Each structure stands twice: as C-alpha cells, then as structure tokens.
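W.,

You were right to be curious about this one. When I first looked at the sequence I had no strong expectations either way, so I just let the prediction run and decided to look at it fresh. Below is the sequence, 181 residues in total, followed by the output.
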Amino acid sequence: MSWRSGNQKLLHEAITDYFEVAIAANNPALCQLQTHEETHPGHGRIETRRCYLSTCLGTLPDAARWKGLKSIGMVESERFINGEVSIERRHYICTLTDIKPFAQAARAHWGVENSLHWVLDVTFREDDSRIRTGYAPENFNVVRQLAINLLKKEPSKLSIKRKRFRAALSDQFRENVIFST
C-alpha cells in the first residue's frame, strides 16, 4: 500500500468519486467491489470499520503511472462516543487484490502512522520546527527518526520522552542509548 489522501489531489478526487458512486450503486459485482466490516467496542467507544476494495482502475487519471497498481481501497471508520457519531474515510492505492489482507494492512498501516507521527509531534515537536529551507527538513526528519529508533532500543521502561530528557542530562545514559547492542 502507498500514498495518503491529499498528496495527489486528482487521484484523491477520482478515488473518492469512485467509491461514492460504487457504494451508492449497491451492486458489488458491477463495480468489482469487495467489502469487509468489523466492529470493535472498547475505550469508551464503539468503532465500526468498513473496508472497500476494487480492482476497477478505469476511472483513475494516469493509472499506469503507479507501478504495480492493482486496486484502490477505502476504509470508513464510524465511531460512537457518548452518543455522538463521527465518520472518517481514508483512501488507498495498493497492490493487493483481496479484501481481508487489505483490511489488515490498512489497520496496521494506520497504527504505525499514528505511533510514529505522535512521537514525532509530541516528543520531538516536529510540527513546531522552523526548519524550512533546502534539504534541512528532510535531514532533520532522518535524524529524528534515528533518535526514535535508538531510544526505543534502549531497554529501560521509560517513555521515549523521558529517555530523551534523561539522555540530554546524563552523558552515561546518552552513551548507553547510542552504543547499546
């Protein structure tokens, strides 16, 4: 799977339009549409996740541009929290052609995305960075991700944020983080 909504505006619009029409048509065979639904209660909410996958690529602009592209997918998350409903839709292009592996990959992908971006945003305050010119943003992103990997590898039970703070204060702890095996 690759690509996130919004990175490619025309592609995003084409996929969004496709799924709106395909779901409204209510004829999965006609639209080459596979569906899968899961409901998960917990953490004070009920979440229903509906996955849609289609191998019909004829409506995409310049589909040949995406090497190995075999399908488009959408995950719709409907959450009931304290009597209120929220719906979020995420769109994907991918090389998978079966709905179950797609559903598993989409869920795993989102967990990794949330985990990494949360650490970058909260612990490293990446969104507040004023680094904007040349290759500096990319270079600092690599350094931040390297630091996260080193801090995760350090065996203590401290949070990433606490490990980072402790490494800033202690030469010995910083050495353990950098040179741990």
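Here's what jumped out at me. The longest strand covers residues 71-81. And, maybe more interesting for your project: The longest helix spans residues 99-123.

Coffee later to discuss?

I.
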